[in-house]
Amino acid sequence: MRTSVLAAGGVALALALSACGGDDSSSNNGLPGGSGNGGAFGDLSSLVASAQEQTTQSSSSKFTMEMNMGGQSITAQGEGIYSGENTAMSMTMDMGGQSMDMIFVDNVIYMKMPEGLNPDPSKPWIKMTAEDAAGMGQDFDQMTEQSDPSKTLEQLQKAGGEIKDTKETEIDGQKVTQYTVELDLSKAGEMLGDESAAASIPAGTMIPVELYLNSDNLPVRIEMNMGAVAEAAGAPGGDAGIVMTYSDWGTPVDIKAPPADQVGEMPSY
Question: What is the pLDDT of residues 60-112, one digit of tens each?
Fold first, then answer.
């Protein structure tokens, strides 16, 4: 049980770190551009270039995550700083009725385990390093690279992503542009964090990713149908997906590691 919670926590954090993208406003499908010229982006490369600039300038946000995988629901809320090697993130995650606090800072993941699952209650936080992640089948380097929004957008582009539809809509009263981006799942190993799984998927397996972007070319919501991912890999899909919602871009965020005397090492199971 402890191992499954740790693994799920690591995967959830990787998804949260990786699911950031961004861009534009206004509906005029086929016009390369953005809010600056009143037209929506018609190609992903223009979208990525603008989004990289805007996310770098804003550098931080709050977020929520909703994920359904294999009949299990995971929700989370937190805040992040997107600044290359100084990227950091903290969130509180609810998984099957169990709460877990997670912090990613200084290239280390800290997890505050649910009650009863920590082998040393005097040290409520457990530290996960690159070596620990490898032992759980997670690629730590990929996880940390994916925490950079600009890298995530580049990965979407590398996966053959193409803008297939653009329309104006609203989210919580905010006007946004919805981009339907279709990507080749067989090329999305970096984005999914699993090159071998992507390699087993037939070339040309296309799935949609919905990007909702405000007039400042910043992400408001990102939706991915994980059921399609599972089915393409030969596993039952069902009602599986992940939705990331972003707010308060540019709000000051202070993320620190837990006190050292409250941190234990990753247990071996």
Answer: 989 888 888 767 788 989 998 888 778 888 989 888 788 889 898 988 889 88
CA angle 240, 113, 257 (to 5 degrees): 105
Structural tokens at position 113? 């385990």
Count of residues for the chain? 269
- Write out pLDDT tens, residues 211-262: 888 888 888 888 887 676 666 656 665 667 788 888 999 999 999 999 999 9
Residue 106 phi, psi (nearest 5): 55, 35
- Cβ neighbours for 118, distance < 8 A, ≥ 6 positions apart: 124, 126, 264
List CB contacts of 115: < 8 A, sequence separation 6 or more: none
Question: Which residue from 250, 243, 249 is spatially nearest to 67, judged by alpha carbons?
Answer: 243
Bridge partners (DSSP) of residue 94 are 75, 99
Q: Is 20 exposed, middle or buried (0-12, 13-18, 19+ CB in 10 A)?
A: buried
C-alpha 115: how far from chain center: 26
Question: Domains of the chain, with CATH numbers?
Answer: 2-265 (2.50.20.20)
Round the CA-based radius of gyration of the chain to a whole number and report it. 18
